[in-house]
Amino acid sequence: MSEASDGIAKTESARPAGRPLRFGLALLCVTLALPVLLVLIGLLYGHWLDVQARLRGEATDQAQAVGFAIDQEIAGLSALLDLMVEANGPPGEPDIQAFASGVRASLDRLGVGLRVDDGEGRNLLSLGPEAPPLRLDERRRAVSDLVMGSAGQMALISRELRRAAAPPLVFTLVLPVKRLRDMVRALDLPNTWRAMLIDGDGHIANLSGGIGNTDRWRPPEERLLRLSGAGGAFNARSALGERLLVGYHRSSVGWRVAVSLPASEIEGPLLRQMLWLSAGVMLLMLLAFALAWRLARHIARAGRALVGAAERLVADEPIGSLPPEAPCEFAAVAQALGKAQQSLQTRRAEILENEMRQRRAVAAGKIGTWELDLRTGKLTGSAGREALYGRGPGEISSGEKFMSVVHPEDWEITSRALEEARNPIGTGHYALEFRVIWPDGQIRWLRSQGAPVETDQSGTVLKLAGVIMDVTAQKEAAERERLLAGELDHRARNILAVVQSIVRMTRHQDPRHFAEVVEGRIAALGRAHTLLSRERWQGADLRQLVTDELAPYLESGRVRLDGPALPIMAVAVQPLAMVVHELATNAVKHGALSMPSGKVFLRWEVRGSELHLIWRETGGPALAGTPPQGSGFGAKLINATLRGQLAGRIEWLWLPEGLECRLAMPAARAMRRLSMGLPQLEAEAVQASLVADIPRFTGCRVLIAEDEAPVALELENSLRDLGCEVVGPAATLEAASRLAAGEPVDIAVLDVNLGGQASFPVADLLLSKNVPVIFATGYSDLKGREAGERTILLRKPLDRGALEAALARLLATGPCQAPRPSPPQEQTREGEDGRRAG
């Protein structure tokens, strides 16, 4: 028997470990997008640096353009001034007023002024914006630093005109910063660019007009004053803390031109571009994530459908189809699962067929498998193995428990066979027939065969395995064959003795008539033996027996039979056959069958516990009404057979219309019962009949529950004949329950079906009060209610002998445990008829 295998728990399975598919797809999107994002960030940063470099270069270029424009302006004004100086040079003294009249219009058009001073600093001429006189050190410089005049900041371009006989004259062009501002405006600088001019003394002039608060875009002065080199660009912060990009250029006159741009003006558009680009990228990524999420949902749905298909495959249910959006790979897996299911179903069907075939073979042969672990003593095997020992599952789980059910007389051979099988130098085979004792006392024969299935390196046997089967039927068949052989031998010798007796006791002067009589009697024995042989010596049917003996007369209609088919014991077949033959022979020679008008009527029936046969002849020779003088061998044979072999009685009635012979014998002595599951009770009934002791159960109170009135009355009469006191009978479950609960009883006879309701609740109530129960039923199977220490099952119609045996067994230890035998009583015809009617 195999141990109970681990079942698949029907509890809900735990969630599988790992991350869901959505997370994996999101991670895939991140994995794919991250390099792109990093590249994009790198490109944006490179673009940022490129824009910064470009802007720095542009700032430098713009500063250089402004510087070049200032240099060109100063160069042009310097050339103009040189022309003016040359025009007033020798010969002669210059006419300043005339000069002034000639250049005034040009100066006004150019937006510059002119100042002429002598060597001592006296102003000789002043046109246009007024400027302060040049200091002595400034006269030597071609272009002065910025100074404040009537028109604001201005630069002075001076030339000295030397005269031979007079002090030099200093011609100075006044260049207002406004002129430079207009010039810068003409350069069309971007609106956000701001230009500044820093002279050699650090004066700063704004070259961009209409700019409002200059603190926003003006770099720190100390940084402007530290500018060096021909040009360049740098980052700085204004007085308001705003970041600036500043480009500068050193002009040819030593001035420095700076162009500044607030970083917000250049970074804002760039940042907006980058922001829009980043927003677009993020939107694309979000879209990708959304698509991935949706795709994950579809794939997850298909995955769940695939998991469901796999689970249905395990449960042997139809796999079904996947959602339409499932990937083709999933569909291929589902198709493979479908093919696997078909293959599994085919294999399962083959396995089930093989298993059923094996189970049928095992069940038919009552075979089980076993495996014994010699190290631990653990005994396992196939399901139902313990049933061979009369035990439930798991009760025979070790070698020790196995030995506890073995018949004590077989302990030695069982241990010897086990030692022989585990002996490394032994036969290596385990074969044994032994007996086991079931809990109900039954002794069953088992045959076990096995061999070592596991050994260690030294050859020591570790495990034995084999098969075991119930061979009780074979043993009983062998025993029956042995008994049958002995019985046949006995019967053969007995037949020889009977034939010898027939020959010796048959007296007749006529040899021919003597032969006919002997042949007839021997033929009757032969027919009886033929009938027994046909029924495998298990008995015969009474109607068939009578028909065979009276066959020649039945065809003519002169013999009429009336009686049911009754099973007759094998030991009673020959005597009854001889009795019927002798009666028929007597009727042919002397009775009704000796005349054409004569007829015979044979009737048989069971009355109570007796079998009755009535032979009645009519239409034959008239009788005197008194028994004839003396009796022949036939009459003696009938009397001896009936009284001696069948423990019966006979009554001869010599009526005027013909002979009537009444035969009666105990049914338990002549009839064979076929009640299932009660061979012991039948044997006890037969034994009780053989000793002619009918037990009496005086004083025992018996509860009857039977819904069929005739059966209840017959059962009541039978129990009263046995001396019992009857409680009931009850025809319904309610009445039976009421009597069982309120009446003291010693035993109960319960019909299993009371008006369509099972009487088991009444039985359980009685058993709880330690009252034994006899079940009476016509059912073939009661699902475990047949056997028990305090219960017995009898099949309907009830046999009195079986009923008596059941009462004797169940009341063996009760208040009626000592039944007193009653003397045999001759029953009157009326009493017999009364019981039969009941």
The termini sit apart by: 53 Å
Q: Helix share of residues?
A: 40-55%
Unreliable stretches covering 5 or more consecutive residues: 1-14, 674-695, 818-838
Please identify the oligomeric state.
single chain
As a whole number of angstroms, the C-alpha radius of gyration is 70 Å
Question: How many DSSP E strands?
Answer: 31
Level-2 CATH architecture of the largest domain:
2-Layer Sandwich
CATH class bucket of the largest domain: Alpha Beta
Strand content: 15-25%
What do you see in this structure?
The chain is α+β, with helices and mostly antiparallel strands and 838 residues long. It folds into five domains: 20-191 and 264-314, PAS domain (Beta-Lactamase); 327-365; 367-468, 2-Layer Sandwich (Beta-Lactamase); 506-670, 2-Layer Sandwich (Heat Shock Protein 90), CATH 3.30.565; 679-837, 3-Layer(aba) Sandwich (Rossmann fold). It is built from 22 helices and 31 strands. Strands 2-1-5-4-3 form a five-stranded antiparallel sheet. A hairpin with a 5-residue loop joins strand 9 (243-250) and strand 10.
Index terms:
838 residues; 21% strand; five-stranded antiparallel β-sheet; 31 strands; rod-shaped; single chain; 5 domains; Beta-Lactamase; alpha+beta
